[in-house]
């Protein structure tokens, strides 16, 4: 069955990824390869059996040549079937009326069944909601169709309370979806109109989820969010910095629905059933009810169905003859899932689930037995299970993140004792809360205590100097890592049986993790200003003194800004400045706060988008950090850094931004939040820097008048180019500041066309040296060392 599951997986990938016209050729080629491999294997098995004096076929032959042929025929059949099913799904999704209307970007009306929970997002101009659904009726271009097309709805924030399973009347514009299992993206224009409420089972599941949240809402915010996430995958409101800590320590699987959740909950129900006398087929009924109930609670999304299947495999593996039953069940689960949901074949979650389950079934038993020769069996199992799952998943995780976690096994060992109680008690709190809320807080509190330990382990592990190591994502790097993991499979039992070697390896690992390795030559000794490479966003660091800095903006990714500050050795932030509240400038405040003392935060006078502004103020309040809006013209001295506020002028901040795509936005006439950016003139140990946020032409013209009114104007060493090098610039301002160096903080392959080639040419023609984070990584400006007073620039990528 594992062979048949692998063949089904290959067939699904062919049907989804190979050009449509080439699919028959690809299938025939794979069948030919399979036939040749089966023939060679058949001969090899026959020779070995004959050499041993055994019959190669017939009764009593065991795994002889007949089994090889039958397996090859079945594998070929399933490969072809999976390719055909995947092709049908692909054609059905990417063709038809919905896809055609999306290609025309048509305005449509229709009916939508909500198949996923609404998720709030912060955009560059306003907050919005995304929700998955299935169009059942679509009207556009004068015609109407009955369809079953999966779509992603991007809607106003009023959609956040749309109930799962409801049928809605919708209107909006269809646009093409970028790959995946979606027929289109629907940009909804109006508020949702509910035509039919959810069925009773969806309403019941929603009540349990609500009761689960109420059972822990008296606990600290991180615990109150993580308990529902651990039980049913409900991670709404999770702190991004905490999620990053979980990723660093290899605990991300606890934040999403996984087979572990189902295994724990169903096993608990089976134990209860046994205690009350349920036997035989009754236990099967209890298990089925547990699995179905879990799927309803966690939602019937593909990831949940996949997790339920893997959890069922784990349950079977826990019984008698667990290895054989578990591996057979794994093959069956992979085959059935991919025949019904072929898009899973291309998802990382599916690959990780299958690999982790296979690692636990195939590797953990021998590793446990080897360790059990010199340590208690329960401890050996606690080490072997996470280690086997981690080894099996390591190449895929490295391919996604570019990192290999060193502390993942230890972190999973430390949290393993409380995962079960937290999951079961959390569910108990939700069930009791359906009847009466106050008693539900007893199991809810204990579950939150367990989760508190998990949070502490994640934060401790992520704060270690070398919790993970960078690993390339090139084909060669991943091939080497995969080869190393495969080599470890036969060697691990021989190694684990020797306690001295194991303890020595643990000691060496502890030294590597706990002692921060030096980074030769980084940061440069005379560094003054750094533009961190945080993707499509801004994060600049001004050196205040040893280990201390002023940070201006954070970028969108907490991990990126956290790593940049770590590389610079910054553990104290004297001042955090958020020029405005767009996510690409203020979305990663948690990354700056992680493990650092922050004295104060200065923010833009315009709280827009409101969600991000509120999040920043909540994070600051939780840490007791004062938040203020600096006055225009005010000057602040922070160590070696002098900051003067040049903008925005009092009374010119617009209260609302134009909608994305509106005429004023398309013409580059600015937005409320962008033009409300704090503009700072900084001096860092003799290096002058103009920090411009995302000011656009209206605010740039105002800034130009401010600059022109100053005696002698503003002549700076470094210009942070406004708005990531957008083409909407006031050329006179760029010329007026006469910058020696221009820093463009921009993400690689961004979809905005940043930076504008004409702008770069204009800067370079004026004698300004231009450096970009997308091409050079971190950009470090150093204090002048030459007689002419020119600043130096060192790049993170040489």
Automatic annotation (TrEMBL):
GO-annotated molecular function: hydrolase activity
**Which is one Gene Ontology cellular component term of this protein?**
plasma membrane
Which residues are listed as membrane-spanning?
20-41, 254-274, 280-297, 304-323, 343-366, 378-400, 406-434, 446-463, 469-489, 501-519
- Provide the protein's localization: Cell membrane
Query: Per its UniProt record, what SUPFAM superfamilies does this chain match?
Result: Metallo-hydrolase/oxidoreductase
Bias type Low complexity, positions: 653-663
The chain positions of domain Metallo-beta-lactamase read 536-724
Report residue spans for region: Disordered. 653-673
Q: Which UniProt keywords apply?
A: Cell membrane, Hydrolase, Membrane, Transmembrane, Transmembrane helix
Which protein, by its recorded name, is this? MBL fold metallo-hydrolase
